[in-house]
Amino acid sequence: MAPSARVALILLLSLSSSAFAAAAPQSDLAFYNKALGLDFITTNFPVSEQVLSDHNCLPELKPVPLAASALAPVLDQVKTAFEDNFNRNKYTGVSAVLTYRDEIIWSWNAGFRTVSPPQPVDSHTRFRVASVSKAFTATALFNLVANGILPSIDCKIVDFESGFSVRNPFAATVGEREGRDLTFRNLAAHLSGLQREAPCQLANCSVTTASLLPWFEKTYLVKPPNQKPSYSNLGYALLGNLLADSVLKGSKGSYSDMMKTFIFDPLGMNETGFYPTQEDFANFAAGYIGGQAVPYYSVDWMNPSAGLFISTNDAAKWMIDLLKLNDMDHNPSQLFASNEAELREFFQPVFLNPDNVTGISAPWETTKRYQYWVREKGGTLPGFSSIVSMIPELRLGLAVFANNQGRSSEWSRLAHEILIPSFQTLLASNQPLPPLVKRPELYVGTYSMGGSTAPAAIATVTRAPDNPSLLVISIVGFSSLLVRQDAVDPRSNATILQLSVPSQFQECQMQELLAFDGQYATFDLGPDPDNNAKIASGFSVQGL
Questions:
Q1: Confidence class of residue 538 from pLDDT cuts 50, 70 and 90?
Q2: Fewer CB within 10 Å, N or C, the chain?
Q3: What's this model's pTM, rounded to 2 decimal places?
Q4: Phi/psi of residue 133, each to 5°?
């Protein structure tokens, strides 16, 4: 092997002793290897001898198109689970929708939007979704940043509303004691320390931000800012109204007008809003408590926190756009103007609890299920319960709206216990193969490795038993794929291949620290590789 690869050997020797210490259990790992055509790795390195770790990475499954016939039995299981939950908890009416990639893959409606007279629920029925409103307010916040209207979600409130102040008994400096360091991020992530509720009743909150400024000035924070989330309906109401009145200076009208301009209209969401029209009321769900309908009321200044009504048909449009995160190069989000960084931050957890399975972000309640962080937002008002739930890595979205109060998170749990394992199975068996190396026989062989800084070792390049087009490089107990790069080293006319390490064979953190995946291997095939039938005389790994 070329001398420049000796440094690489030192890294590979250390990698060989740790890279497989965190492999998945036999059942999971063997399945993924088989589905991805990597059975030979399981054969070469028996999983039974490896140590299971909570930190091993999931296979990086691309959310590729899936056949309707493959999805049908999975969706039937979800339907059965939902029907059982509906009947067991005696819901009046429920509407649910599942999205995958760029389309609705399943919708389900049960029960009635009104009992007297009995009117069935459909995908266009408008439901009040309570605190799910916060997810849309946060969408507007990040949308304004993505489109260059607001410089950052870390801008201070006082930079846009100079009259804002609140008493901070936990602060050391004058500015902090007046709450003048609070930011839009603080409000969106429930890290402001503001009290939970507004000073007005939800059904009677016809106030303005300007009229509340004197009240804020005399109000004390209940928690230190930026330390631990403390849920605040007040904070989200303030956030949404500040965006409309102070950031946009009323140029787009009220908060509800702003949302229509920046969120609803661009996505064609015509069944969504804050003040129902006659057309909306023609297919509007009445809330029920104990069989009695709850009269409709507006929440006005509290709209950013709890005032939204929406159909599952419209919720699907919103989720599909946000879940374009991992396909922004080819299919950018309309709301985020191809600004992947802001959309990624929108889904990023802000605070993880000590249990390591729950957390808070702006605006999500995050829950870890099957090693995926599920981003969801639930809501409850008298007579209504709702939840939206998304897994960006799988481009999978769920919305469930009901016109009874109930445990909305149960819908999410039931769905994901079926969907996540099923999608892992389906996606693993439909993953595209790595780019294959042209004329793989030219690279097959055994390469000696040695030097004064490391013991002698052997590097072997072989063809995968089940797929001779795949090349595998094995060095002192460590295996990696070699994939096509279609590049030639301009200095030596040598061929450059790329190392590809399946993610499930390393701890996530170890992958990041070693950064072995993606490294380039330069093979010397002589002056005329096309006519060369010999094994490469050597190779080097650059940059290690």
A1: low
A2: C
A3: 0.85
A4: -55, -35
